[in-house]
Each structure stands twice: as C-alpha cells, then as structure tokens.
Specification:
The chain is of the alpha/beta class. It is built from ten helices and 34 strands. The strands form nine sheets. The protein has a six-stranded parallel sheet with strand order 2-5-1-6-7-8, covered by helices on one side. Strands 15-12-14-13-17-16 form a six-stranded mixed sheet, with no helix packed on it. It has a six-stranded mixed sheet with strand order 24-21-25-29-28-26, sandwiched between helices. The protein starts with 9 loop residues before the first strand and ends in a 6-residue tail after the last strand. Bound molecules: adenosine monophosphate (AMP) and magnesium ion (MG). Keywords: Magnesium, Metal-binding, Molybdenum, Molybdenum cofactor biosynthesis, Transferase.
Length: about 575
Amino acid sequence: MKPTDPDLPIIGFAAWSGTGKTTLLEKLIPELTKRGLRLAVLKHAHHDFDLDQPGKDSWRLRQAGANQVLIASARRHAHLTETPQGEPSLAKLDRRALDLILVEGFKHDPIPKIALHRAALGKPLPEVRPEELLAVASDVPLDLTVPQLPFNEIGIADFIEARLAASSPDDGAPQSAAPLSVEQARGRILKALIPHPHHQTLPLAHCLGRVLAGDLTSPVNVPPHANSAMDGYGLCGADLACGQWQLVGEVLAGHPSPRRVAPGEAVRIMTGALLPAGVDTVVMREQAVEEAGVVRFGAPITRGQNVRQAGEDLAAGTVAIPHTTRLRAPELGLAASLGYRELTVLTPLKVALFSTGDEVQAPGEPLRPGAIYDSNRVTLRALIERAGGEVVDLGILPDQQAAIESALSLAAAECDLVLSSGGVSVGNADFIRNALAALGTVDFWHIQMRPGRPLAFGKLAGTPFFGLPGNPVAAVVCFLQFVLPALHALQGRSWQPWRLKARALEPIQSRPGRSEFLRGIAEQDANGQLVVRTTGPQGSGILSSLARANCLIEILPSQGAIYPGEAVWIHPLQGLLG
Ligand code: AMP
Ligand code: MG
C-alpha cells in the first residue's frame, strides 16, 4: 500500500475470521460519523474481485482495453482501475473530505491497528507487530501492555476519538472556527453548564407544567386496604368446595362492614368497597345466580381474583414521582391520591431574551420601509416557557455595540441564561462579537447543520449565552437542538432527543457531511406504517411551514440524498412548541 498523507490518521483492524469484524465496523462507522468524523474505509478483497459484471457496458469497455473506467451518476461513482503492480493506492481517496481512514485487511502493511478478540472463538490474539498494535478490543479481560477496549463500537469510538484528539495540534477539540457536528456542539454546551436549580412550594392547582424538585414518596399504601375490583360477590377463596354460598349482607364503597364472613358465606360487594374480614376473593356479578338468599357461580374461581391488594399500586415509602419529572395531569392526580395538597417544584429559570437588527420592528405599528416584524421574540418566548423558563424581555436591540453591551451586562447579572436572535451570521456578527468579547467569552460556531449553521455560545460573567441565527426557522431548530437541552441541564434534568423512524414519501436533497432538519408532516399510511413528507419549500425564513409541520425530518451527515421509501429519522414536535 502506498503511504498516505501523514496528517490523515489511519487505523487498521486485525482479527481472525469469524470474530465479527465487519459487523463491528458496521456499528463503529455510524458511531464515528455521529461524532463528526468523515471516514473512508479501505477493504481488502481477493485479487480477482470485480464490482463490474460481465456483459455490462462498463465491463465491455474495460475488456476492449480501457485500463480505467469511471462509472458515474449524480449520486455516486466507482473508479475501476487495474492494479497490475498489486498495490492499491490511498491517493485515490479524496483526502480533503476525510478525517480518518479505517482499514480492513492488509494485515502485513505497517499501519497502526486495533486487534479484535472474542473468547468464544477459542483463538489467540491475532498476530500484530508490537510497534503497530494500538489496543485490543476483547470481550474478556486480558493481560496486555496496550489499552484494552470493550468489544463494542462505543468503546472503540471513544478510543479513536481520544487518539485523534491527542494527535491534533490543539487539545483535540476543533477550533471554534472549525465546523462542529450537532452532537459535538451539544456536548460542548452541556459540559460548560452547571445546574443550579431553585425550589418553591406551590398549591397542586398551580403545578401543571412545573418540574418536581425532589422525589415524591408515598406516605401511605395505595390502595390503603384490600378492596374489590368488581361489582360482585366476596367470599373466602380457601372454601370453594361447598359450591354454594349463603348471602349474609352487602358492602358498599365507603361503608366498611364490621361483620366477619365465615366459610360458606358470601357478601354482595361493590367496586372499591373494602373486603370484610374473612373475604379474599371476588366473583363478578355476571357469573352469579342468586336465589332465595343463596348464590352459586357459573365459572371457575381462583383464590384472590378481582381484588386490589393494599399497596398494590404503591407501597408506603416508595417513590411515586421521581424528581425532575414535568408534572402533567396524571402526576398531579397521583400526588392528590397520596394526600399532597402542595408540591415543591423548581423555580422557573430566568431567561433574558432579545432580538437584534436595525430592520426588526415590534408588531403593532405599520412597518417602516425595509423593516420586518419581530417574530423570533414571540416564538422563542413560547419555547422558553414551555421548557420551564421565565422570560425577561429585553426587546429589540439595534445593530450597535454600545446598546447591546449595556443590555447584555444587565441581563447576565440578573438571569440564568441569555438568549438573542440575529446578528451571528458572517459579516453581520462584528458588533455583537465585540460586545460579547467585551463582557465575557463567546465562540462563534460553524455547525454542520442546516438550517442554523451559525451559533454563538459562551459565558457572560458566568451566565451562559446563546446567540441564535435570525432566520425564524433556524432560530427554532437551534433552540430545539441546543437551548432546550441546556435549559434541561441547568435544571438538573436529563434530555434525550425523541426520534422515530419513518419512510420518506418523496425525494429529499441533502448534502452529506451535515445534519439537515426539514419541516415534515408525518402520518400513518394504510398499513399503519409511519411515513413522512416535507412541508414543501424549506427556506429558513418560512415560518408558516413550521406551523404546518408536526415533526422535523433529520437527515444524518452520513446520508446523502434520500429516495422515496428510504427510512429517515423524524423528531416529533408534539409537546415541544407550546
Ligand atoms: P441575521 O442573523 O441578523 O443576519 O438575520 C438573518 C435573517 O433573519 C434576516 O433576514 C433578518 O431580517 C431575519 N431576522 C432577524 N431577526 C429577526 C426577528 N427577530 N424576527 C424575524 N426575522 C428576523
Ligand atoms: Mg441582523
């Protein structure tokens, strides 16, 4: 193999056949691309391998004597070339578009390698020259002089990422000017935040949508006593042989019966009524024949049936609602069922919000020439409040450094987070950049995503700051990807994207290497399968299309154009937008 660019990392994998190398690489590749790495794979094949097929036009042209054939379409191309010297050349790879080359096979070539080992195969470690062995991934503990990794894609990806970071000129983190993947940017943001939740106690009726501050434990058994789950007849399940039961009374919910029920006796009992002493089994009314004070049953009886046991829902002392749960109708009902009249919830985070731009005007007055109405402040306020924040509205700031500086320093002192929109795109950002630099540390990030590539993130006197793009849809997409997780983190709550797989109903154009978020409309098709189409034109200023969308379609950096029928991720918007 010809040497490659010395700056382009290359890592090989050595394994006996049967180890599951390709299966592991199949998982490792998406894991690495998710972390923002652009990969090529060099795969060894037997020397007569051919992608081409006899009889195909390209095959016939090669047979006719063309040493190289480039089969190309708008979507992909393959360069078929004879290598009589027996040496594949890495120069064929487009190195500008790569961060890493993974090599499968070529075990005798002097490249750094990770050896893969699985105990079940019963083989020793694959042979690798010691100077080339970087690490061993195995499913059993081994005595090694190199790092041992777990036999899974996460452990290996962590190792590769750390190795790339260690060999890059800075501390491994891309420079602020270098593009970041969505995950990288989110990871950096979450790392920079320190949770600082505050509490307040509120009556139950004011707790809807608030976040529970501590675990809510049950002070009692729920239900407190064994009771009937049916309208029917209560009897002792140890005494089923008698075949008929003498009726000795009736027990209604809320009216416990003091009388003990003896063997051979039964009581009529209603749903929710406490089981009298001696009763542990209930037969539903529909299975009973009652005649002259005697009851018989037309179905087999199992001891204990149709009874709600004491503590069956919740035992006294167990956690009924875990801390950081957002309180909705069922949680509020549950708290009431435990006897709570008020709850300790998180105090909403204070979020300072402002729009920037000389052209941006508050609605209510006729538009000045060249102006647009400020929609971002309204949209963002709703998103902030839905996420458990309280807005401190700083209005619209002109494109002037001094005005922005004074608003920012006030906001940073008073609030838990500062959020702005506009003024972060290239060529537009200088005044805001200078204002931010004067007050704290802020990076302008180029994120590999669309919409919403430019994002400013930093701290102003310890208070986190987000500068969102001005385009209304980009501002919302960035909010959902970065600010929402940050608000969760500041409240000490975990956050996970909620994604579902759906089949695309139409072709979707996307550029590999970046995450694309499109406004989508998802629904079930006739077979109950989730399918999705876009809302149409995707300009990042078209807010009306976000109003029509019920999901965002996420096209991953590793995906190119999507064809109808292909699976894509969708992020349901239900519950996120207000
Ligand atoms: P900027 O990021 O400031 O370059 O703005 C990008 C685009 O978003 C421009 O077309 C702005 O006019 C528009 N824009 C900026 N702020 C707002 C806002 N608050 N509401 C609606 N559109 C805005
Ligand atoms: Mg602007």
